[in-house]
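Handoff note, outgoing to incoming analyst
You'll be picking up this chain. Sequence as last confirmed:
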Amino acid sequence: MNENITYRETVIEVKLDRIAYNVEQIRAMVGKDVKIAAVVKADGYGHGAVGIAPAIMEHGGDLLCVATLSEAIELKQAYPQYPVLIMGLTGDEYLPYVIKYGILQTIDTRHQAEVLADLARKAGVTAGLHIKYDTGFHRIGFPDCPESLDEIEAISHMEGLEIQGIFSHLVLLDDESNRRQYQAFTEAIGKLRERGVELPCCHLADSIACVDYPEYRMDMVRAGAIIYGLKGFHKGSLDIRQALIFKTKINHITSLRAGEGVSYDFMWRAPKDTRVGTLPFGYADGYPRNLRGKARVTVRGKQVPVVGVLCMDQCMIDLGDVPEAEIGDEVIIYGDGTENTLDIQEISQLAETNKNEIVSRLSQRPPRIYTENGRIVRVKTMLGETGRTI
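Most recent structure output, in case you need it:
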């Protein structure tokens, strides 16, 4: 039996051909000599890291970047051949798993380097790492001072370790602060190289910087939002396409008279006789609860308001302007801006947050349906995954 069951009307479609297209556009922009580190933390910004990784790596990606050990292990279990870098820090007690799975680890203290080196020697392997250098973001990283250069030099001589890269992060406040950070970073790199420290890959630019500030691309760019077609850049230009569509179906319709209320506390009452459709999704699926009174979804090509207090698992829409709507009709929650849908940029503005939060907060409950040129190639649900097609 050839099945591809989602078990639910509410689903997230991820267009793999658009992921591939975006990576190809990034590759064309940065050229063949600059590596692309694809940031797939937060489950690939809600798209599903395991589901999108091949589309990234087969179309120009060089490295996968995550924030946590568990994210890295998930990818290494699925694709042992893909290099994966943890950009965050990992506690000493969990570093044995870094060695076990051959993960690249970010280091910002000599102590952790010593722990990692000891584990690597005992396992008879060489552990790859990237040095995090703080040029002003003040989050993690070796502080920008002579003592840090001494520490990094010492790490470079530790048996069992290989420094594969060094990186920092721009604050992106303004051009002048970017320039100061870049100067501090390159000066530190220069001093380390004068001491004989090999630094094969130096990287500073995230999605915004790699488009807006080509002078900061260095050896590698860390492409996050732009992989998914989310535009945060302002100065440069890059043709990318949103890859994610969040959709559901009407599963109940209620007729209301003028003055009757909907949902908790009757925060919305029908201004006139109307019909209200119930949709089987809510804030437990990652939909922002603060969109009450602002959100709109698309039914039969028309935008209609979400009404009443958003529930954990359901929400309601006013169908007064779509009298022909029926149970089973498709509803676009997050579209790509075509066919009268709200894209993720518009949703983020309504929710008063950024695009990355909107997609990364999407929970595991909605199945991910992966498509290529409109054809389903993979489905991931909370119950498992299949690569079979319908």
